[in-house]
Amino acid sequence: MVHAANIQDRDGAKILLGLVREKFLRLRLIWADGGYAGKLLQWVCALRHSNPLKLEIVKRSDQRKGFYVLPRRWVVERTFGWLGRQRRLSKDYEFLTQTSETMIYVAMIGLMVRRLSSR
After folding, report:
1. Contact (CB, 8 A) for 12 and 1
2. Main-chain dihedrals φ then ψ at residue 35, nearest 5 degrees
3. What does each C-alpha distance from 4 to 27, 70, 89, 99, 116 come to in angstroms?
4. H-assigned helices in 1-119
5. Given this model, what pLDDT does residue 70 score?
6. Dihedral through CA 97, CA 101, CA 107, CA 111, nearest 10?
7. At a CB cut-off of 8 Å and minimum separation 6, what does 80 contact?
8. What is the mean pLDDT of each run of 10 residues along the chain (119 residues)?
């Protein structure tokens, strides 16, 4: 989901999870970074009574200094890397958020088709 820059990430997460709550019943676990901690954890737990969702925060360690790979966080960064290889997504050229979201769908469809054709 792509939203305007004036929407806080936690608020955008509520919008997104409200949309997928009844659509993706097999979804059980969501990983997020520290920016999503706080009241959102309880909100996600109360979102569905049957097949409850769990929001797991992937946190950095205060003891470690410098760069290191966080568990599961690399999945998001890898996906951003794949998207950044597309010309239309390398910069923020789009005026409408719906167009940006469509370009992400097109890029991911292309990635999946290439993977399927290489089998």
Report:
1. yes
2. -65, -15
3. 25, 27, 16, 12, 33
4. 9-20, 39-45, 73-84, 87-90, 97-117
5. 77
6. 150
7. none
8. 88 90 89 85 87 85 77 81 85 85 92 89
Enter the tokens of residue 97.
């958020």
Tokens of 109: 């469809």
| Both tokens assigned to 58 | 């992937």
Q: Computed over its alpha carbons, how large is the radius of gyration of the chain?
A: 17
Distance spanning both ends of the chain, measured CA to CA: 29
The tens digit of pLDDT for each residue in 69-83 reads 777 777 888 888 888
Q: What's the CA gap between 106 and 74, in Å, rounded?
A: 22
Q: What are phi and psi of 58, to 5 degrees?
A: -90, 110
